[in-house]
Amino acid sequence: MAKYKDVGLAFQAVGYTLDSADLWYRMGSDLEYAFSLVETRARGGGERMKQLVRKQNRRITAGGSPELAPEESAPFTAALRDRMQIRPAMMLAAMALECYLKGRIAEDTKENAPKGHGLVALAKRSSFVFSADELDIIGRMLEPMIQLGRYFLTVDGKAGMDLSTSRAKQILHSVRSQMG
Fold it and tell me: What is the dihedral of CA 160, 180, 116, 1, to 10 degrees?
C-alpha cells in the first residue's frame, strides 16, 4: 500500500496522477515500442537458428561431422542469445497491455487505476471489447510478466508457454484501435 502511494506521489510531482489516462497510455505506448524492438531481435535470432540448423543438417546428411566447426559456434551462440529474448518481449507486451487497460479504466471512471496485475480482471473491467479467445491469451500473458519482471512466481510450466508474439501484437493493435 505504501509503495503504491509513493509511486502516486512521484507521478504527482511531475504533473500526473494515477487517474491520468494519458500517463497510462504513454507508458503503454513506450512499453509496446520496446516490445517491438525486442521481439524483432528475437524473431531474427529464431530465423538465423533455423538457417544454421538446416545447414548443419545438410552437412550431417552428406556424411559430415555433427559437431560444430569453431567458426560455426559463435553464430549459433549469438542466434540462440537473440532467440531467448522472446520471453522478455512477451513480458513487455503484457506490461504495455496492463498500462492500456489501466488507462482506459482511469479514463472511464475518472478514478485511480486499480492496483494489481490481473490482466483478465483488468480487461473485463475496461470498456475494451475482447473475444473469449483473446481473454484466454491475455490470461496467459501474465506469466512472463510475473516471471521476468520484478516478481517471482513458481508456475506449472504450462500457462503461457505457447504464446506467440504475433497474437500479443494483435491484441495490442486491437486495444490501440479501440482507444480512438
Answer: 160
Q: How far is residue 32's CA from residue 9's CA, in Å, rounded to a whole number?
A: 25
Residue whose grid cell is 510450466: 157
pLDDT tens, N- to C-terminus, the chain (180 residues): 344 455 555 556 655 666 788 889 989 999 999 999 998 888 888 888 888 888 888 888 888 777 777 777 788 788 877 878 888 888 899 999 999 999 999 999 988 888 888 899 999 999 999 999 999 999 888 777 776 655 444 444 444 445 577 888 888 989 989 987
Q: Alpha helix locations (H) across the chain?
A: 2-13, 21-61, 70-83, 86-109, 119-125, 132-148, 165-179
Residue 2 one-letter amino acid: A
Cβ pair 104, 128 in contact under 8 A: yes
